[in-house]
Amino acid sequence: MKWRVGVLAVLAGFALTGSAFADDAATIRLGAAVSLSGKYSTNGVFTRNGYDLAVARINESGGVKVGDKTYKLEIVYYDDESTPARGAQLAERLIQQDKVQYLLGPYSSGLVEAMAPVTEKYGVPMVEANGAAISLFRKGYKYLFAVLSTTDQYLKGAVDLAGKQSADPSKLKIAMAFENDPFSQDVREGVTEDAKRFGMKIVVDDKLPPELNDMSATLTKVKLLKPDILIVSGHEKGAETAIRQISDQRVNVPMLAMTHCDSAQIAEKHGKIAEYTLCAAQWAPSLGYSDKLFGKASDYAALYEKTYKEAAPYQAAESSAAVQVFADAFTRAGSLDPKAVRDALSATNIQTFYGPIHFDETGKNVDKPTILFQVQDGKYVVVYPEKWAEAKLRTPTPSWDKR
Amino acid sequence: MTDNLILLLQNPSFALDVVLNGLLAGAIFALAAYGMSLVWGVLNIVNIVQGELVVLGGYITFVTIGAGVPALVALPLSALVMFGVGFALYYTVIFRVIDKDLFISILATFGLSIVIQQLMNTVFGSDVRSIDTGLGSFYMLDGAVTVAWIKIVACALALVSGLALWTFLRYARLGQAIRATAQNPRAAHILGIDTSRVYAITYGLNGALCGAAGSLAVMAWTIHPYIGLPYTVRSFMIVVVAGLGNVGGVVAAGLSLGALENVAGFVFGAEYQIAFVFALMVLILVWRNWRAARRRTYLA
């Protein structure tokens, strides 16, 4: 019985200090549920690192000016365990119990999808940086904003590149293998649209089940039908499986494009067999964007590496940008009223180290393009869009007996 | 769908590629299924944690190869460590549910699978892992048929382990004790067999088989903490088809499941590959039931 009293006392103590913080007028508290355990834990930690880095940087440089007062930022975190149901619960808890009035997004579209109805219900603005599904922005949400490019944009660049390279794009054949989940199916939608625009022919259109780690049947079909472009999307496991099996089965395609190859570290892990692969990404340290807070994109990458002892992933960069968007909106709103902040958010039009951020009426960022890396000599080199290209595209990919 | 079928029939060399890749994948499923068949037959437990043991075996290989151990040593090492893990699991959890009804043991092993999943996620992270053995691929017929050497090695190892297991159960003293316990634990106990130890060793043996299967899986494909369930389901299915205590049947069922699955993936599209596995299982259960019913009528 005694320990129970003790635990209660400790809990009461926490509750007291908690409310003491809430009364502290000089801080603005943001809430976030991120995946610190479960299947998204790697990316969840990147998300948190990005948020923390931006908060630390903003506080160091004097805080956020709202009206004539200056505030520090602080984030209340919970672990959503990578499960949507838990995410929705925690959004409710952040708003109801912790009295947080502004949320930063979780990792993954699925989690955002679960939390958005809650923030919408309470009129709490949420700026998210890691939920790219286009479907999120077709539901008429008023309080949801996303700094990253939506999924349908991811691999359009690859189709565009192939179309421009070819004398007659309508003769090109495309093979697609996309995981059967909302993210990858959105990517597929964008690719299909663009293929149609060029009049290309889709010869393989397989949906990979989420629990599949063997795509040899699909690849045999690709070998047989000899498409000009092979596009694969299925998170890190899709990228890893595809790279392995394409070389195992010696599948020859002139162009291979996929998502998540940088986070799956295909160049680092697989060396030569990953060469020539095109990878869609949201951001790269080599891009020429900059802002006052972090400096250039490369400065951000250096700061991140110094702080966390690892290379800056784009998941962290976009998370930092989300905090910057909030800080900017607070200042412009000149008030901490969630409704006023929401209106200021929707009028956002800023340049960041991560890229330009400007929301359309559905809340998605329409100004920032996605980029394509190509694995060249073991490095990820930006080859698309032309404006930021660091090197020329190496094409076509030679056949396996010449590699 | 029909055009895929026509494509396959018109290009027999590519059809061979699909079947061969499937067969070799089936060998790894068979390896995990031996273990399940053994545990089911001897301990009367449907081991839902099977897939997680496979994945854990894969991680052990991943770590040891990362530390510089050659692949040929890493595989038996993984099997050995997993024997220990199985043995320890028996004395901590499994022995408590061994004579309870099937529901309790399914629940307990299901719980174990969640615990192991989360532990693997905490210890090894959620990243997808695989090991490139650098063996390259075997190819013939102008590149139409390509098979990674590691899959051929995996198949050979699976067949050898099957044979070794069969020999062990048939001729070794301990193997005979295991079979005796499976047939009638009370009688075996009365005749001086330490049945509790036999159970522990059987479960450890299952762990070792899973360890070997996982080791091959990480070299042939990819693993992550949540990929266990497909291995459990396939093992279950292979055992249902082959029946208990039938090593040859497990090999045959495993290989044909692998091949059928891959052909289905080609013809119906990858999205129906796993659905096909489940549909096949339902058909087989119906067929077995029908056959059993007929036999009963005949006896009556």
Describe, in plain words, how this protein is organized in 3D.
The complex is a heterodimer of chains A (403) and B (300). Chain A is built from 12 helices and 17 strands. Chain A has helices at 2-23, 41-60, 84-96, 109-122, 156-165, 182-198, 216-225, 235-248, 266-270, 297-308, 314-333, 338-346; strands spanning 27-34, 64-66, 69-79, 102-104, 126-128, 144-146, 173-179, 201-208, 229-233, 255-259, 278-281, 290-291, 295-296, 349-352, 355-358, 371-376, 379-384. Chain A has a 7-stranded mixed sheet with strand order 8-7-9-10-11-16-17, sandwiched between helices. A 6-stranded mixed sheet of chain A has the order 2-3-1-4-5-6, with helices on both faces. In chain A, a hairpin with a 2-residue loop joins strand 16 (371-376) and strand 17. In chain A, helix 2 (41-60) packs across helix 11 (314-333) and helix 3 (84-96) packs parallel to helix 4 (109-122). The longest helix of chain A is centred in the first third of the chain and has 22 residues, at 2-23. Chain A starts with a helix and ends in a 19-residue tail after the last strand. Chain B has 300 residues and is mainly alpha-helical. Chain B has a single domain (2-299), classed as ABC transporter involved in vitamin B12 uptake, BtuC, CATH 1.10.3470. Chain B has helices at 2-10, 12-43, 50-66, 71-97, 102-124, 149-171, 173-183, 185-190, 195-220, 228-242, 247-268, 273-299, and strands at residues 137-140, 145-148. In chain B, helix 2 packs parallel to helix 6 (149-171) and helix 3 crosses helix 9. Chain B is globular and about 65 Å long. Chain B starts with a helix and ends with a helix. The interface between A and B is large, with 41 and 43 residues.
